[in-house]
Amino acid sequence: MLNKGTLFVLGFLAFFLFMQNSFATQRVRPPKNIVVTNTAQGPNITWDYAQPDTIISYNDGVPGGIWGLVQTAGLGVIFDLSAYPGATLEEIDFIHYGNETVAGPYYFNIHVYDMDSLIEVATLDSLIADDAYLSPRYETYVSLGSLPYVKNVGIFIQGLSSADSTDYYYPSLLTDGSPLVPGTSYMCINFDDPFDSTNASYTNIYELNIVDPRSTNVNLDLWINFGGKTKVKISDNNNPLPGPIGNPDYLPESTFQPFGFFTSLSLSAGADSGFQIFRGQSFDSLDIIDVVPHDTWEFTDENAPWDSSYFYGISVFRDTLFSEIVPIPFYNSLMTIASARQDTNNDFMPDRLADTVQVYGIINSPNFGDRTSFFMQDKEAGIYLRSEMFASSMQIGDSVYVKGVIDQIDGLTTLVPLNENALLVLESNISLDTLKFEQDIHPEIIEGMLVRLDDFELADTSQWPAEGENKTVLITNGVDTIDLYIDASTDLDGWIPPRDKFDLVGIVDQFSQNNPADDGYRLRPRMQSDFITLSALN
After folding, report:
1. 479, part of any domain
2. Which of 34, 246, 419, 452 has CA 20 to 30 A from 332's CA?
3. SS3 209
4. Omega into 293 within 30° of 0, i.e. cis?
5. Mind listing the pLDDT tens digit for each residue in 115-172?
6. Contact call for residues 93 and 144 (beta carbons, < 8 A)
C-alpha cells in the first residue's frame, strides 16, 4: 500500500505554483522551422513537425469492460517515464462509449498528475468527444500541449455528460481484454480532492483491481517526444507503483460490466489531418492556396508571382481543429534580366559584375557553340548565356531559370551558370517578342534581344563567308550601315544569301576589346529564315 509519505514542500513549491496555472487546452501543434527558398518551379517551402515519437501503451486496444462513473470520478493510467528523462507529453488516445444511454457529443476533462509530488500538473477542461452511442469510439490526437517531463505521470479522464435519469456520467470509459499490468490502471474517486486532504495516509486514487477484481487495463495511450525518429510502442511497466493508493476501507462507487462481443470501433475523425498553405501581401492578408497531406512537409508554389515578394503561412489541421498560422516572409531573389545586367553609372561595365543572380527568360537563339552558348531574353532585356563546363540541348522558345554569375566577355554582358543544375528548362515552345530596331536606341540597352530591321540589303554579296567560316559582313538601307556577324555554327555560312532587299531578324551582339567597351555592336542572325525577302512574304 502506498501512502502519501513526506513531501519536500519547499523543493516542489515553485514547480507547483507554475504548473497549477498551466492549464492546457485541446489544440493542434503548429509547424516549426519554416524555410522558403527560390527554385525554378517556384518558391519551395519546407517545415518540421514535431510529431510524437514514442507511444506508451499498457492495453491491447480492444474493449473488454465498461465502467460507469459518478461525476467526480474517472479512470486513468499512471505511466512510468523514468526511461525517458526530458520527454515532453504530447497526446493521448482513449476509447469511450455512450453505452446506448447518452448520445454524443460528450464533454470531459483530462487531469494530469505528478504522482511523486502529488500535485496536479495540468487540466484540459471541457473537451469534446464525438458520438459513441451504439459502439465504442477510439478518440485520437487529444493534445496535451507538449507538457514538460514528469517521471511518474497520472493521466485521468472525467466524463461530464449525463442523462437526466442516471447518476452516472459519460462517456463511459473502457478497459481492455488483456491481463492487468500491475501499477498502471487506476480510478480517481474525487477530482475535487484527488490526494485526499483529509487523510495524510491515503489519496482518492485506487488501483483498478482493488475496485473490481475483474478489471483489466484502461484503454488509454500516451504519446511522448523523446527525440526518436520512428514511432515505438512501449507496452511494459518497468517501475509499477506498489499496491493500492486509495483507502481499502472505503471503495469508490462505480459499476463494471463486461463489454460483450466485440464488433468494431469507430475511429476519431482526427485521422483526417494535414497542412494548409497560405500566401498574401502581409501577415494580416493571408489566403489559403493549397492543402497537403500530413506526411508531406514541403510545398512548391508553382503559381507564385515571379517578380514580387510576399508572405507565406503554414497551419496544421486535424479533423475540425486547426493550429495557428505560422507566417514567414519571402523575399524574392529572382530578378529581371534588366536588373541583372544594369549599368547605372554608364561605364559600359555591368554593376553586378561577379555577383550571383537568379533570372528567368526565354531562349532566343540556337546554341552558338559545342557547349553552352545561347542568348536569352525577357520582355525588357537580353543577355548572353555561356558555360564551358557542360553542353546544353536547349531550343529556341524554351523558358529557363538560371542561377549564375555576371561576367563580361568581349564587351558582351554574360551570365555564367553555376553548374548544370543551375540551368533548368521550365517550358517549351514559348512565343518570342521581336523588337522593332530603332537607330536612336543605344545598342547596349537592347544587347542580347531579338530585333527586326526592315528594307536592308547586303553591301557586297561577294563577302559572304564560305562554309565553315565565321565572318562579319555589312548590310545597309542606303542611309545606315550595320555589321552582320555570320556564325559558322548556323546554316548561314556557305549559303547563297538574298541579292535583293530583305527584312532581317537577329540578336543584338557585341565584340569589343576596348575599355570602356562602347563599340563593336553588331547583329547576329540565327538561321536562313531570319532573312525575309519579298518572295518569302508573298
Report:
1. yes
2. 419
3. helix
4. no
5. 999 999 999 887 888 888 888 888 877 888 889 999 999 999 998 887 665 567 888 8
6. no
